[in-house]
User: Fold these one by one.
Assistant:
Number 1:
Amino acid sequence: MACGTPLVTTTGSAMAEVTGDAALLVPPGDADALAGALEAALAAGPDIAHRRRLGFEVAGRYTWERSAASHVEVYRSVTQN
């Protein structure tokens, strides 16, 4: 997503929760839905352009700096209690 590539992932996983509307979601094991989502991603229509923009926003939330700060906060909370 950080590179502007449309993401296709399955429902019922953490990826669906993380990506939200930025990804094309398909049910696990549904080959037809997967093929349709991949075709939609390759077609690069207005919906995909919107999802790409959302993808940049989502990816921006997951930086190394934020990850490090989150870990530091967890370690502080554990050591203070």
Note: The two ends are 38 Å apart (CA to CA).
Number 2:
Amino acid sequence: MKNQHDDYIIKGDLLYKSIKGNNLLVVPEDMQMSLIKSAHEEGYFSVKQTEDRLINEFYIPKLMQKIEKCISNCITCILANKKQGKQEGELHPIPRVELPLHSYHVDHLGPLESTNKNYKHIFCVIDSFTKFVWLYPTKSTSSQEGISKLELQKSVFENPRRIISAKGSAFNSKEFYDYFSSESIQHLSVTTGLPRANMGRAIISKLSKDDPTQWFKFVPELQRILNSTYQRSINLTPFELLVGVKMRGKTDL
């Protein structure tokens, strides 16, 4: 008969529990809620997203139940959720090409609180295959600003073969049409915006809760959070799928 302690090992004075071949660090009971709170507040994640950030590294009994308790008492989430409006719909199906940097989804997030730099929006670029996100604060949704951000994107990653945007958005202007034509980029329009853009807006409002006019300072952190968060549709984080290695965060062992 297998002893209940056989799954536990000690390495470097730390206790680990072996589950399905993975050695998970056993978190002392008096530290569990603090660790859960820290993982949640890194991006004010949902219950499942918070669990995904912990479950592969730490062993905490009844983890989901404890996460639910933590989030139900999160004042920032309670206040931010009350302010969220109608949720954006899902994208209509478009034939998917399983290549990184082949297709981008683009959208504007905002308007947000005006800043002392006059930023009011975030220009969002999402790689269709890897779900990797690039975020650029902008002062408007003008074609000129959008094109300048795509040029900045091109300087590092070159052009995608196609760009997908919402119908009736700024991306359907003559300026964008001419730009896409000159760069040999196919432009497709869909009826709704990006679901992840709505998620980004929720996170940025929570990160900048102390002074909403300073939200632009948190855009790099928001981009890091989105790209290091596990995505069920790809069974990895966007960073891992695009770069090939796991993003190292300050909480990693």
Note: DSSP finds nine helices and nine strands in the chain.
Number 3:
Amino acid sequence: MSVLADRAGISLETLSKIQKGHPGVGMGKYAAVIFGLGLGVEWMKLASIENDTMGRMLDDENMPKRVRDKKRST
């Protein structure tokens, strides 16, 4: 476990908290462990906007239906 903590740049205590699911551990520490395990590329693919079809659908719904230029005053 100390090798993983070193690779992730975190303490053994923080790694232990992550393993126990402690709510006080920041998301960045989880990401550091993921990269320390060598799973960073797969995680980035998972978090990619191209793979977030639901998020893109919700964004599309919130886009204005029609966009017009404002009339210029002459």
Note: Residues 2-54 form one domain.
Number 4:
Amino acid sequence: MPDRATPATPGTPTAPATSSASPTSPSSVSGGSARRSDATRAAILAAARARFAADGYERATIRAIAKDARIDPSMVMRYHGNKESLFAAAVSVDLRLPDLSALPRDQIGHALVSHFLDLWEESGELTAILRVGVTNTAGAERLQRVFREQLLPVAQAVCPDPEQVPARAALCASQLLGLALTRYVLRIPAAVALARQEALAWLAPTVQRYLTAPSP
């Protein structure tokens, strides 16, 4: 006959149940905190880009950005300090441009356009930054800086005439930004309807010519 459990006497303390769960390790706590921090930072930047694009730099406020991100304004200040620093972070981007000098010369235009199509399509970040750039002066200046510091060296590495590097880089930007504006910001139906390979086939030869062709 099985033993019966002896009921506890009222008022007698019982031993606490032993949990089989292991205590939370410091590494798991820090990992969770880091993920929350990254998510908060991403929410702030996304809200900032949308607000700067809609209101411009002067009218956008930390309070409005915090409301859009659904956090307290003090959190925005904690991450970025002030509106100027937040704006700089919101419109900064690494284009991760490939080293075109290592490619066969006739593949340069194809590689550059393909890279930009990947950038535009893998994330909405560049599209948001472009919206900021076309709606206010401060955003345009930041976008110009991104292309001056990142696209200009790429053009310099392959351009046959060093004196024409700025002009050729600007012409490349006109194609790359023009496609992005019509396809991802304005969403002109014919531009949106282009298959990736079609867009690549149209733009790559033009960008190739801008970068490597002899002077007209």
Note: The mean pLDDT is 85.
